[in-house]
Specification:
The chain is of the alpha/beta class and about 400 residues long. It is built from 13 helices and 13 strands. Bound molecules: pyridoxal-5'-phosphate (PLP).
């Protein structure tokens, strides 16, 4: 007998992650060079792993305060001051979350009432759309393709003139999927534009802040602290995706509301991970430095090779992605191109359409992969683009 259970209507249009489905599909093809997932290929630094073992030995295995342990809150406050020159009070302005993902979900659930709109510059990290929908909100996309994936103040004003009931905007720099980021001037201009709309909650996903290659990351918190929730975490900077450590940094009255969602969803973040994270953000404050240098080398090799092959790339000065325009004359949409590349040349990339309609015509290549893998990918993509296949064809159709 079929069940009579009804579900939350907001979930009806939410699909599973296209990237993960595609990745699972592509994994079935043997000898694949996988450039699909946003997962650092480094191990978590040894000193952090040792602290997790120490936490177990010390029996730090009980609930912690919902907000996070005082030591971790102090360390993350210090980290934000040292790195990005923004002051957040560890007692009132910081919340420890299960990765940046929970930080995003809790923040958006805290601000959205049914039917409220949230601006999302597009292409965008896929979770933004589904979280807004889950919360009963309506995503409004701002196409950034024509401006080399840089959000412009004029586009914010246009969107605010065209739409009512806009309660928030999700920013993401350095950006996934484009790798584009803002320097101080650009960040300030965006902050100035947003300040005109004090009703907007600015949710700024800065999870890739430690991976900026020329210049330094500037947080929106520097210019627009009063209406912003800055989201960060250790998944990327410290190669700690599985540990699930993220944060929201926001004024006390906003943090208080996000905290209600967090408390009811998860109570607190894993106590062992929090203990180790405290040392990641203090002793390991510069752990990302050697990774950044390695990513930079890979990015340069990969960008040069792809450009020579006819791909156009907006300068990826951050994160670890290249968003490449499929050369003219390919006659395939991004999904067809990615599938064909996987089948014919055994290189797995993500079609741009996975990041919204504005991503059509592009593919995302992650360089969180070894130089050896990147060189293999270059050789295979080159063979594919020149019309031949460099090695045995896959049997997968
Ligand atoms: C832009 C962006 N935000 C958030 C996340 C999620 O981070 P976390 O693993 O800390 O939840 C990712 C992961 O790929 C991301 O690319």
């Amino acid at each position: 007998m079929s069940s009579h259970i009804t579900f939350n209507k907001n979930l009806a249009n939410i699909e599973g992650s296209l990237i993960r489905t595609l990745d699972a599909e592509m994994q079935k093809i043997p000898d694949m060079v996988r450039l699909t997932l946003g997962q650092p290929d480094f191990n978590t630094p040894r000193h952090i792993k040792n602290r997790a073992i120490e936490a177990l030995e010390k029996n730090l295995t009980t609930y912690t305060p919902s907000q996070g342990t005082p030591d971790l809150l102090n360390a993350s406050s210090h980290f934000m001051k040292e790195k990005y020159d923004v002051t957040y009070d560890p007692n009132t302005d910081i919340l420890t979350t299960n990765g940046a993902t929970e930080a995003l979900t809790a923040s958006l659930l805290a601000i959205i009432n049914p039917g409220d709109k949230v601006l999302i510059p597009s292409p965008f990290f896929t979770l933004y759309e589904s979280i807004v929908e889950m919360a009963g909100g309506v995503p409004v996309f701002i196409d950034t393709v024509k401006t080399e994936f840089m959000l412009k103040p004029e586009s914010i004003h246009e969107a605010m003139t065209e739409h009512d009931n806009v309660v928030g905007i999700v920013l993401n720099f350095p950006n996934n999927p484009t790798g584009v980021t803002w320097m101080e001037d650009e960040c300030k201009q965006i902050a100035d534009a947003l300040r005109k709309y004090p009703q907007l909650c600015v949710i700024s996903d800065e999870i890739y802040s430690e991976f900026v290659y020329t210049g330094k990351h500037v947080s929106i918190g520097r210019f627009l602290k009063d209406q912003s929730v800055v989201i960060n975490g250790l998944s990327k900077s410290h190669a700690m995706t599985g540990w699930r450590i993220g944060f929201t940094f926001a004024p006390a009255h906003i943090t208080r509301e996000i905290m209600k969602v967090h408390q009811n969803m998860v109570t607190n973040v894993n106590s062992i991970a929090q203990y180790a994270a405290t040392f990641a953000m203090s002793d390991g404050i510069d752990d990302a430095d050697p990774m950044r240098e390695e990513y930079r080398t890979r990015r340069d090799i990969f960008c040069n090779a792809l450009t020579e092959l006819g791909f156009k790339i907006a300068e990826p000065n951050g994160a670890f992605y290249i968003f490449a325009k499929i050369p003219d004359g390919s006659n395939q949409d991004s999904m067809a191109f990615a599938l064909d590349l996987a089948k014919q040349a055994q290189v797995a990339v993500v079609p741009g359409i996975a990041f919204g309609a504005a991503g059509e015509g592009y593919i995302r290549l992650s360089y969180a992969a070894s130089i050896e893998m990147i060189e293999k990918a270059i050789e295979r993509i080159s063979g594919y683009m020149k019309g031949g296949v460099t090695h045995e064809q896959s049997s997968i159709q």
